[in-house]
Amino acid sequence: MRVVFLGAPGVGKGTQAELVASTYHIPKISTGDLLRSAVSQKTPLGLEAKQFMDRGDLVPDQVVIGLVEEKISSPEGAHGFILDGFPRTVAQADELSKQLEAKDASLDKVIYFVIPREEIVRRLSGRRSCSKCPAVFHVEFVPPKVAGQCDECEGELIQRNDDKKETVESRLSVYEEQTMPLIHYYKQRSLLEELDGSGSVETVQSRLLALFPAP
Ligand code: AP5
Predict the structure, then answer these.
(1) Ligand 1, residues 29, 30, 35: which to mutate, most atoms within 8 A of Cβ?
(2) Of all atoms in ligand 1, which is nearest to the CA of residue 85?
(3) pLDDT at position 215, please?
(4) How many Cβ atoms sit within 10 Å of the Cβ of residue 170?
(5) Structure pTM?
(6) Segments in 112-180 forming alpha helices (H)
(7) Cα–Cα distance, 131 to 158 (Å, whole number)
(8) Which residues, given as ranges, of the chain have pLDDT below 50?
């Protein structure tokens, strides 16, 4: 199963990708997680990416394309994957399709998550991310068992720099300008499935799993 999760920042892609990846035993490939890991390790790629991420801009296509190529070509990605947050531009989508064609493979579906804009802002403003592992919580909707502490690894929960109000607005504009054209792109290729992302995590998960064959 080769699937793309597409949608605005904060719509719940990462949360659902984690759940679907563990249900189907396939990797979740999140360009946001890969980039944040490079930033925290202060690699040259991370140092370059940080400037773009802090402003809410997209990291240059060639940087993220290289990261994804490495993952989908690894043995881990051989039997399928969920791409969370990639592609985000038409150039990235074209490159992904070239890489898959070269492996005689193709995408099965693109799930387009939709929730109202005010709900996106509520989800992003209350998001808390673990400083040590990829776990994500929400102060109101997905609270940790102990306030400020990750349920998985007991790491400290922090607010992402780009979840601050001014950066959220800029991320949403970048999404509208550069990523929304992919809705038409994948609709034309008959790959797009729209998913109502509102409601609890469990409600969204059951709607989502109904779009896939039983595990
Ligand atoms: P990235 O990390 O990909 O950010 P994003 O797409 O903006 O997505 P988010 O992680 O903000 O949201 P999400 O949809 O995963 O929501 P989540 O599940 O966490 O990218 C960050 C940056 O990296 C970009 O701005 C860019 O600079 C760079 N980048 C990444 N990929 C790139 C690419 N391909 N090209 C160029 N640059 C790239 O949920 C949000 C919150 O809501 C959480 O608190 C969660 O607990 C809560 N929540 C989830 N589901 C529900 C629910 N059903 N009900 C209530 N709360 C919920």
Answers:
(1) 35
(2) 3
(3) 79
(4) 13
(5) 0.95
(6) 117-125, 165-174
(7) 6
(8) none
